[in-house]
């Protein structure tokens, strides 16, 4: 990486990558500085400070800059003897993070495209697309909401009503939270996805996070915690949740990271459900108000 180096003479003024120090070209002290990738000459920092557009750009390129006013923390000296703000040394970090994120995104897109083998009938595994769509329905919000409402209606024990009502609440909470995150992140679904899903909200044109994955993870934890199930059935619940997530990528509905984050979010959503758990006392007062 080139370090800022002073050199005499005005010949370098038009050379790409070098800028005259001292504000107006080679004049002033007649010295030139190389523009470093990690350091900006201090006179440029001063000039940028008065320009709202460049100020915005600087704010977006370095989180450190957002924290303080650059000029007050100057402590390091450049080769030209001019102070360089200390926080400039941190500039490499955001770009390293940016490169890491871009690489992750590139791998995510590449892998998701490779795995989208049921994205259409002509795809390499297109013949199993109907089966994947069945798995999709098994993780959809409508059957889960209808199923929980039906169980609540049919349940004749207080414990059954408590669990099913809380499941209903959990499913509604999941729809709201996923909708909010989708609306905030606004990540488009993969280009190879065919938008032929049934019963979607407008936010469901966005893919991050996968609502099926959040629901599958949350419901799996819910069922494992509140139903007395034999070991094979417990394994089946976990396999179902994993398969729902996998089917989202195979169908081309989601990128891998949408599903991974969906599982993560759904897992912790269950903690929230536990924290907000509606107790029998609350339920009885709710029933009393209904009567
Ligand atoms: C009662 C009520 C508000 C029902 C709405 C149920 C509904 C339309 C849920 C949407 C489920 C859905 C298609 C989510 C998208 O899942 P992704 O995995 O594609 O994000």
UniProtKB/TrEMBL annotation:
Residues 166-274 form the Phosphatidic acid phosphatase type 2/haloperoxidase domain. One of its GO terms (cellular component) is endoplasmic reticulum membrane. Residues 8-30 have a biased composition (Gly residues). It holds the Pfam family PAP2. It is a multi-pass membrane protein. Keywords: Endoplasmic reticulum, Hydrolase, Lipid metabolism, Membrane, Nucleus, Transmembrane, Transmembrane helix. It is an enzyme of class 3 (hydrolase). GO terms for molecular function: sphingosine-1-phosphate phosphatase activity. The chain crosses the membrane at residues 163-185, 222-243, 263-283. Residues 37-53 have a biased composition (Polar residues). It catalyses: (2E,6E)-farnesyl diphosphate + H2O = (2E,6E)-farnesyl phosphate + phosphate + H(+); 1,2-dihexadecanoyl-sn-glycero-3-phosphate + H2O = 1,2-dihexadecanoyl-sn-glycerol + phosphate; (2E)-geranyl phosphate + H2O = (2E)-geraniol + phosphate; (2E,6E,10E)-geranylgeranyl diphosphate + H2O = (2E,6E,10E)-geranylgeranyl phosphate + phosphate + H(+). Coiled coil: none annotated. Its main location: endoplasmic reticulum. One of its GO terms (biological process) is lipid metabolic process. It is found in: Endoplasmic reticulum membrane; Nucleus inner membrane. Its EC number is 3.6.1.68. It comes from the Eukaryota. The keyword Hydrolase applies. Residues 1-88 are annotated as: Disordered. The keyword Isomerase does not apply. Residues 69-81 have a biased composition (Low complexity). Belongs to the PA-phosphatase related phosphoesterase family. This is Polyisoprenoid diphosphate/phosphate phosphohydrolase PLPP6. It comes from Electrophorus electricus.
């Amino acid at each position: 990486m080139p370090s800022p180096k002073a050199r005499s003479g005005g010949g370098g003024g038009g050379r790409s990558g070098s800028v005259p120090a001292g504000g107006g070209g080679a004049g002033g002290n007649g010295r030139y500085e190389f523009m470093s990738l990690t350091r900006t000459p201090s006179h440029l920092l001063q000039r940028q400070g008065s320009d709202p557009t460049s100020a915005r750009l600087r704010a977006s390129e370095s989180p450190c800059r957002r924290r303080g006013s650059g000029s007050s923390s100057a402590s390091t000296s450049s080769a030209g003897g001019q102070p360089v703000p200390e926080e400039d040394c941190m500039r490499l970090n955001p770009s390293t993070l940016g490169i890491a994120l871009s690489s992750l995104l590139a791998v995510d897109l590449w892998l998701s495209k490779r795995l989208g083998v049921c994205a259409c009938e002509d795809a390499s595994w297109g013949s199993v697309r109907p089966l994947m769509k069945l798995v999709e329905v098994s993780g959809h919000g409508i059957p889960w909401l209808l199923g929980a409402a039906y169980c609540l209606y049919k349940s004749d024990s207080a414990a059954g009503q408590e669990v099913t009502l809380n499941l209903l609440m959990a499913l509604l909470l999941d729809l709201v939270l996923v909708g909010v995150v989708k609306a905030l992140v606004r990540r488009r679904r993969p280009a190879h996805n065919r938008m032929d899903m049934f019963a979607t909200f407008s936010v469901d044109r966005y893919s991050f996070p996968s609502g099926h994955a959040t629901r599958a993870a949350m419901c799996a934890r819910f069922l494992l915690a509140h139903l007395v199930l034999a070991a094979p059935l417990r394994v089946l619940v976990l396999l179902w949740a994993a398969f729902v997530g996998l089917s989202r990528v195979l169908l081309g509905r989601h990128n891998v990271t949408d599903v991974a984050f969906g599982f993560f979010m759904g897992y912790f959503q269950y903690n929230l459900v536990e924290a907000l758990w509606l107790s029998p006392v609350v339920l009885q007062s709710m029933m009393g108000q209904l009567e």
